[in-house]
Amino acid sequence: SLRRMRSTVGDLDLVAAAADSRAVMQAFVNHPQVARVVSQGETKASVEYHNNLRAQLWVHPPERFGTALAYATGSKDHNVRLRELAIKKGLSLSDQAFLKPDGSEILCATEEEVYTTLGLPWIPPEMREDRGEIEAARKKRLPALVEIADIRGDLHCHTTATDGRDTLEAMARAAAARGYEYISANDHSKRVSIAHGLDRRRLLQQVRAIDKLN
Fold first, then answer.
1. Are the beta carbons of 106 and 150 closer than 8 angstroms?
2. Which of 8, 22, 38, 122 is the most exposed place for a label (fewest CB within 10 A)?
3. Which of 116, 145, 152 is nearest to 128 (CA)?
4. Are 11 and 3 in contact (CB under 8 A)?
């Protein structure tokens, strides 16, 4: 759910690729933020961190990493659709590999190989919710996701005039350096006294400063 950028995340499922899982497992369970090891085996471990968040780690051989990552990413409904497509091709899809009728396997080191085997282009994790992405991928009509490079400005900025951490000028220069076309100052009003909110006089001072910077 984290990789799919869901608004809420229950726990973390981590997938690693390694020929020898032991060192990866030890690094995971001995991390300083781990409060308790819930379970630990050769290829799977579960821990609870000091902030009460739980995480599970699966370690797969590199040649099986693609199917493992696709399976762990989900969503459940998306994965069901992928397995249905595999069945139509005479295959069985698991987190380990594609299984052929004769018992041999198709191994996928990358997610791209998983989707290629199913006759689909790679589908970004954020779209894997069974909301039409399979059909769109078949028709080569997957929409483009909004990316960092698409952001043209920021319409909610606080400055050191109230509870921000940088001056108006510093923020304007930083925004320009990022290639932004605009930013908006949104400091608190005098009603929020705990944040040193702007009264009429200080607000007019900020307006004049903004005019000068513009």
1. no
2. 8
3. 145
4. no
